[in-house]
Design a protein that fits this description.
Blueprint (H helix, E strand, L loop, with lengths): L1 H18 L8 H40 L4 H26 L1
Helix pairs in contact: 2-3
Length: 98
C-alpha cells in the first residue's frame, strides 16, 4: 500500500514539474527529455539513499554482530536496514524503468 502511494506521489511530482516549465521554446521532445532527465536524477537519488542505508544500518550492524553479543536491538536495526535498502533500490529501479 505504501509503495503505491509513493509511486502516485512521484508521478504527480513529475507532472507538476513538467507543467511548471516556463520556457516556451520547447517542443514535445524537449519536454520528454526534461522529464527523462528528472527521473534519472531522482532514481540516482534513491540509489544513493539505498547505498547510505546499506552502509549505515546493515554494514555497521554486521560488525556489531561479530564483535558483541547478539541483541534484539541490533537484529531489529539490521532487518530495518535491509528492508529500507531494498525499498530505496526498488524505487530507483522503478523510476528508471517506468
Amino acid at each position: 500500500m505504501e509503495i503505491v502511494s509513493v509511486k502516485v506521489y512521484f508521478n504527480l511530482y513529475l507532472i507538476v514539474m513538467t507543467e511548471n516549465d516556463n520556457d516556451f521554446s520547447g517542443t514535445q521532445r524537449n519536454r520528454r527529455e526534461k522529464v527523462k532527465a528528472r527521473r534519472e536524477m531522482l532514481a540516482k537519488y534513491y540509489f544513493d539513499l539505498s547505498k547510505l542505508m546499506a552502509a549505515a544500518l546493515v554494514i555497521t550492524n554486521f560488525s556489531l554482530l561479530t564483535e558483541a553479543e547478539m541483541t534484539w536491538w541490533v537484529l531489529l536495526r539490521l532487518v530495518v536496514g535491509l528492508i529500507m535498502t531494498g525499498v530505496f533500490a526498488l524505487l530507483g529501479y522503478r523510476l528508471l524503468t517506468y
